[in-house]
Amino acid sequence: MTRTTPIREREHRSLGTLIRAWRERALLTQEQLADRAGVNVRTIGRIEGDAVGRPRSASLRRLAEALGLDGRERAVLAAAACRGPARQEAAAEAAAAAARVEPACRCRSHQWRSRLDAWH
Predict the structure, then answer these.
(1) If DSSP codes are grouped into helix, strand and coil, which group holds residue 93?
(2) d(CA 100, CA 113)
(3) What separation, in Å, do the N-terminal and C-terminal C-alpha atoms of the chain show?
């Protein structure tokens, strides 16, 4: 059975919207996801409400594992976590380019992607 990612190629959603869509796809409540991921339920609520500027990488890794995200979804998660609201479109384009070509540099954005790629 093939899963579909809750975003379209040209549609750019916030980190909170993505986490909520993946949580709903997994048929989990915020409390259930928090238990599975080992994070506080308030953290889930704040992330889904886009009240967290830049979540901790450990929290994102645990959420990705608890949600069963594949490699492409983890890359989308990393791109959404790294961008600010004013730079969403530019960051999405950069994430798409990074998915096609392995980065030669080790800037903060590429470090996030590398960490997320290593999780799957």
Answers:
(1) helix
(2) 12
(3) 19
The first and second tokens of residue 80, run together, are 């959404």
Could you tell me the two tokens for 99?
A: 């998915």
Residue length, the chain? 120
In single-letter form, the type of residue at position 101 comes to V
Residue 68, SS3? coil
Cα–Cα–Cα angle for 23, 17, 61, rounded to 5 degrees = 60
What's the one-letter identity of residue 50? D
Side-chain-facing half-sphere of 36: CA atoms under 13 Å:
18
CA distance 42 to 29: 12
Q: What is the pTM of this model?
A: 0.60
Distance, C-alpha 35 to centroid of its chain: 18
User: Which residues of the chain carry a pLDDT beneath 50?
Assistant: 1-2, 5-11, 85-88, 90, 101-103
Cα 43 to chain centroid distance, Å, stands at: 14
**Interatomic CA distance for residues 84 and 65, integer angstroms:** 24
